[in-house]
Specification:
Helix content: 40-55%
Strand content: 15-25%
Shape: elongated
Order of helices and strands: HEEHEE
Distance between the termini: 95 Å
Length: 147
Amino acid sequence: MKISRGFTLVEIMIAVVIIGLLAAMSIPAFQKVRNKALVNAFVNDLRTIEEAIDVYATENGKQLQDYVGGIQPVDLLPYLTKPDFTVNTPLGGQWDWDNHTTYYRISVIPMDTATVQLVDNEIDDGDTSTGLVQFNGGFRYYTWNAP
């Protein structure tokens, strides 16, 4: 009687199906964890920028002037070493500081609605049409009311 050593085609197919199912179940979980880490890194950078702008305003008695996106605000250099305004944020797009007559905001353009929603869920009211975080063609974080 001859004893065969090895796997049958059916056994190999079952093993491949099991591995495929495990991969299919784990990939979404990994993506969710990765997205959460990127959102947290973005929020930390946002708070770092906000704090640096607050310290600048307190020490200089005036608000930071308006800067175009993608340009590191020279006035913030003593207060802010990271993040770099000249590179993309963890979620894509570039940082921008807007100084308007009635409000101040930190913006990121471009950023899609779904990404803004993730950030809004993390730090605001979950509605991207109201509150501190809003979507208007990009990410808008309203920080302070002008005096």
